[in-house]
């Protein structure tokens, strides 16, 4: 199986370890076999080991080591934020964050909503079962 | 004593550096106006003769001297303060009780008493917790707040919750063998009235928020997969 996501200049990656955990960063240059120069609009550009990065499907069109302004413009042009938040990976992370930030009261309301939903589903199911049983 | 000023004067002699003032002795004499006071009093500084002291009562020599010197204990002027209230606990916060008869119940916080304990109520009609005192350490503060503006809690303090002392009658031999006549202590009517008064406006504001009444009626418990250190309350 060939690789699909390559380390290249402009590849957007997710930081999976360290101070910037969970941030989307852009690979801006490759330092050596293990490290990349990495940049994000709200971060000071710095080096990161590849082991701390998980590559995403998104790439942007930038020259090697662009100025911060050009980087931000390129990210806007490629619409990285919206592409990420509409991708299934991005959506999953958003849901995880929302679940972790739930209040005790919110969790209670969630439980009530789940019970209500499953009640409605079970009603429909029993109705369908009865129809099926009677038609046989 | 000379008349005290309403606001203390800041020093007329600012420090150039610690230990060295800006103005010399003669300059300060002039600044403080001592020359004016002297002029007002005819060239001399006014002095007040000490008032004649009342003659001290003659002390009798003590009847008893201890064999060795008795040490006097050190003076203690400490005034204990009520426990520092956590910033997350404000009047109207929903608390989760962690220990005791009402373990797991979600309860509304009213105020902190002078002993440091927290005054808390169910409300009684919703979850059976009466007006009660609770220690801050046995409580989780949630971020849910209830509107408590309609409640007057001024009359409750630690004395309100003191146990009633009843006089024990001396038992004679005959009475020892009789069955214990003390029946269960009934809750006095005025305490029930206090509970109703506090809960009336609370219940109204609770019913204003959807699901809050059911939330307060339910108990909290840790379920599978819940990690307390990761939960946001």
Automatic annotation (TrEMBL), chain A:
Superkingdom field: Eukaryota
This protein's GO CC annotations: cytosolic large ribosomal subunit
CDD domains named among the record's database cross-references: eL14 (cd23702)
UniProt domain Large ribosomal subunit protein eL14: residue ranges: 45-117
Protein name: Large ribosomal subunit protein eL14 domain-containing protein
One matching Pfam family: Ribosomal_L14e
Molecular function terms, GO-annotated: mRNA binding; structural constituent of ribosome
Entry's family note: Belongs to the eukaryotic ribosomal protein eL14 family.
Taxonomic source organism: Gossypium barbadense (Sea Island cotton)
From TrEMBL, chain B:
Top-rank taxon: Eukaryota
One Pfam family linked to the record: Ribosomal_L6e_N
InterPro entries xrefs: 60S_ribosomal_eL6, Rib_uL2_dom2, Ribosomal_eL6_CS, Ribosomal_eL6_KOW, Ribosomal_uL6_N, Translation_prot_SH3-like_sf
Keywords (A to Z) from UniProt: Ribonucleoprotein, Ribosomal protein
Cellular component terms per the entry's GO annotation: cytosolic large ribosomal subunit
GO biological process assignments: cytoplasmic translation; ribosomal large subunit assembly
Domain named Large ribosomal subunit protein uL6 N-terminal: residues: 3-61
Region (Disordered): 41-64, 176-197
Gene Ontology terms, MF aspect: RNA binding; structural constituent of ribosome
Family stated for the protein in its record: Belongs to the eukaryotic ribosomal protein eL6 family.
Protein name per Swiss-Prot or TrEMBL: 60S ribosomal protein L6
Source organism (scientific name): Gossypium barbadense
Lineage of source species: Eukaryota, Viridiplantae, Streptophyta, Embryophyta, Tracheophyta
């Amino acid at each position: 199986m060939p690789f699909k996501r390559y380390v290249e200049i402009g590849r957007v990656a997710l930081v999976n370890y360290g101070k910037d955990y969970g941030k989307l960063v852009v690979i801006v240059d490759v330092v050596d076999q293990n490290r990349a120069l990495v940049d994000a609009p709200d971060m000071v550009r710095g080096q990161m080991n590849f082991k701390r990065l998980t590559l995403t499907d998104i790439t942007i069109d930038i020259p090697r080591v662009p100025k911060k302004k050009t980087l931000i413009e390129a990210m806007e042009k490629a619409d990285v934020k919206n592409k990420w938040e509409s991708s299934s990976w991005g959506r999953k992370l958003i849901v995880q964050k929302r679940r972790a930030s739930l209040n005790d009261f919110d969790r209670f309301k969630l439980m009530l909503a789940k019970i209500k939903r499953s009640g409605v589903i079970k009603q429909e199911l029993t109705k369908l079962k009865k129809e099926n049983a009677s038609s046989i | 004593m000379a008349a005290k000023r309403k606001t203390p004067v800041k020093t007329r002699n600012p420090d150039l550096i610690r230990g060295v003032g800006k103005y010399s002795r003669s300059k300060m004499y002039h600044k403080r106006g001592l020359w004016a006071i002297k002029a007002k009093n005819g060239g001399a500084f006014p002095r007040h003769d000490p008032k004649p002291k009342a003659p001290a009562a003659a002390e009798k020599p003590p009847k008893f001297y201890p064999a060795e010197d008795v040490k006097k204990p050190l003076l203690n002027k400490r005034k204990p303060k009520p426990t520092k209230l956590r910033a997350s606990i404000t009047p109207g916060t929903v608390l989760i009780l962690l220990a005791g008869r009402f373990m797991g119940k979600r309860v509304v916080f009213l105020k902190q008493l002078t002993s440091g304990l927290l005054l808390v109520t169910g409300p009684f009609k919703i979850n059976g917790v009466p007006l009660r005192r609770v220690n801050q350490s046995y409580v989780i503060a949630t971020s849910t707040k209830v509107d408590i503006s309609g409640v007057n809690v001024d009359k409750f303090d630690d004395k309100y919750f003191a146990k009633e002392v009843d006089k024990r009658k001396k038992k004679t031999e005959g009475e020892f063998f009789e069955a214990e006549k003390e029946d269960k202590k009934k809750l006095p009517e005025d305490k029930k009235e206090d509970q109703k008064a506090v809960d009336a406006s609370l219940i109204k504001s609770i019913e204003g928020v959807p699901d809050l009444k059911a939330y307060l009626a339910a108990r909290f418990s840790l379920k599978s997969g819940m990690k307390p250190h990761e939960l946001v309350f």
